Amino acid sequence: MMKIADIELPGIPLILAPMEDVTELPFRIICKRYGADLMFTEFVASEGLIRDVAKSVDKLRIDERERPVGIQIFGHDVDSLVIAAERALEANPDIIDLNCGCPVKKVVNKGAGAAMMKTPEKIEEAVKRIVQISNKPVTVKTRLGWDAGSVNIEEIAFRVQDAGAAALTIHGRTRAQMYTGEANWNIIANIKANPNIRIPIIGNGDIISGESAKQKLDQSNVDGLMIGRAAVGNPWIFNQIKHYLKTGTELPLPNMQERIDVCKEHIEMSLDYKGEKRTVFEMRHHYVKYFKGVENFKPYKMRLMQTTNVEEVFEVLDELREFGNLAI
Fold first, then answer.
1. Is 102 known to be catalytic?
2. CB of 14 closer than 8 Å to CB of 238
3. Residues near 14 by beta carbon (within 8 Å), at least 6 away in sequence
4. Which of 198, 144, 193, 203 is nearest to 169 (CA)?
5. Where are the alpha helices (DSSP H) in 221-283?
6. In angstroms, rounded to a whole number, what is the distance separating the alpha carbons of residues 135 and 95?
7. The pLDDT value given to residue 50
8. Which of the following is catalytic: 31, 100, 102, 263?
9. How many whole angstroms separate alpha carbon 256 and alpha carbon 262?
10. 323: which DSSP letter?
């Protein structure tokens, strides 16, 4: 069992990583059903919350079916982060998480995300001040460092622990790596093994199956595993990993019928959550993954990626049923 302050999570918990335009409310509910133990929202811009930008405020919506759930915020100014945390707390999440790992150019160019790792003292100050105003546990998600020459995750781990963070998630790459190369779980393992680290350490990076999850867990002995890109269009991965960790065998992949049904449900919930225009656009992140491995999928993919009409999306999905129960 892993505990984040008073939040108890079973066994080695599997955690859905925060991903922009991916981990919106409908997808989180589906992932919860298929075995995710803890959710995080898409990251929310602190300045967007302060200015009441509609898209930022929308990201604060939480459903009781997905708990426990954390709201992740990002920014470069400590005062703004504190105000944003206060706004996020009004949505009654179970956790407030500080993003210090996003490598995307538009984020780091503003000094936020992984750029925060250049100033560990600012991360420490932000955590300390958010902890002071929060009635919920505060956690941090980060990378190993800015680049290979500035790997400073050990310093940051101690700083956030001293500042009152309740857990730390480490993605095993530097910002310079973006999502390329191999995640370095040896460094994550060293942080976890340090006897002076008392808070839970959650590992993230290259977990794509039950077998890879077990390998990373055996290598690092982390308290929890966070799954990101491998869950896109594949909410089944959480139960697949749990089954493998328990039995050493892989579950069969979902058949075409189940994939279509879940994809449709995802769309229908998204329509209620954010309307047709955003639903059709943002679901494009998921289509290819939902139907990965389907033979002759390309023409269907092109139609799904080009349409702006939900009715046409459903027409394409109904045509895909002709594949029957073909395993993917």
1. yes
2. yes
3. 35, 36, 37, 38, 213, 224, 225, 226, 227, 238, 241, 242
4. 203
5. 237-247, 256-282
6. 9
7. 84
8. 102
9. 10
10. G
pLDDT digits (tens, 9 = 90+) for 176-211: 999 999 999 999 999 999 999 999 999 999 999 999
Model pTM above 0.90 = yes
| Residue recorded with tokens 């706004």 | 87
User: How do residues 249-267 score in pLDDT, each as one tens digit?
Assistant: 999 888 888 899 999 999 9
Helix (H/G/I), strand (E/B), else coil: 74: strand
Three-state DSSP at 250 gives coil
22: amino acid identity, one letter: V
Q: Is 155 exposed, middle or buried (0-12, 13-18, 19+ CB in 10 A)?
A: middle
DSSP letter for 327, please: B
DSSP 142-161: E-SBSSGGGB-HHHHHHHHH
In this prediction, residue 294 carries a pLDDT of 78
Would you call 283 exposed, middle or buried from its count of C-beta atoms within 10 A (0-12, 13-18, 19+)? Answer: buried
The pairing of strands 7-9 and 2-4 is antiparallel
Residue 28 and residue 16: Cα distance in Å, rounded? 8
With beta carbons less than 8 A apart as the criterion, state whether 117 and 76 touch.
Answer: no
Amino acid found at 261: D
The Cα-based distances of 124 to 73, 116, 118 in angstroms read 15, 10, 12
Q: Tell me the CA distances in angstroms from 36 to 18, 67, 102, 202, one per residue in order.
A: 13, 10, 22, 14
With tokens 């001040």, the residue in question is 129
Give the separation between CA 65 and CA 72, rounded to whole angstroms: 18
Angle between helices 120-133 and 153-163 in degrees, nearest 10:
20
- The token pair at 168 is 């730390």
Say whether 23 sits in a helix, a strand or coil.
coil
Residue 127, both tokens: 């955590």
